[in-house]
Design brief:
Order of helices and strands: EHHEHHHH
Distance between the termini: 54 Å
Largest sheet: 2 strands, antiparallel
Structural class: mainly alpha
Helix content: 55-70%
Radius of gyration: 17 Å
Number of strands: 2
Strand order of the largest sheet: 1-2
Number of helices: 6
Length: 157
């Protein structure tokens, strides 16, 4: 289960997380490891893809302090994913360490699922930023087309 107070990254996704950041002279589209993790968790949640972490990255990126996510306002995503997954308001309890572990665990697994999606989408790509933009553009267009197929309100006058 997740370590309290830190968000971990699977060892097999660590290199991808590093490649997606612009820190240390990198050319990735994200500023920090935490930004990558938040994006990946949202992507994993959108596709309902939760993947257990397996072996944890001990080095870069090492587990990221939860306070960092909170300082950027991203702790709300951690809480939303947890309450959506558990359907239990107690999951939001700030006084219970077990609930914090549960929230972090859910967030980590969605992030790992999202990183798996990104790994597949970015395979063979040179410019990650461009490929991610294309991927997001396709996602938006595909969603709009699906919505239109089932949107019968256009027949109402």
């Amino acid at each position: 289960m997740a370590e309290t107070g830190r968000i971990r990254v699977a060892k097999d996704k660590a290199e991808l997380v590093k490649d997606l950041t612009s820190s240390d002279g990198g050319t990735g589209p994200f500023n920090t490891f935490a930004d990558v993790i938040v994006f990946a968790a949202a992507l994993g949640a959108k596709h309902k893809k939760r993947v257990p972490l397996g072996e944890i990255s001990k080095r870069e990126p090492s587990p990221i302090r939860i306070e960092y996510f909170a300082s950027m306002g991203n702790d709300i995503l951690i809480k939303l994913l947890a309450i959506n997954e558990t359907k239990d308001i107690k999951t939001l309890s700030l006084n219970e360490e077990e609930y914090e572990r549960q929230r972090n665990h859910i967030f980590e697994e969605y992030a790992n699922g999202g990183l798996e999606i990104l790994q597949n989408e970015l395979r063979g790509s040179v410019d990650y930023a461009e490929r991610i933009l294309l991927f997001l553009s396709y996602e938006r267009t595909n969603t709009e087309q699906q919505d239109e197929e089932f949107d019968l309100t256009k027949f109402l006058s």
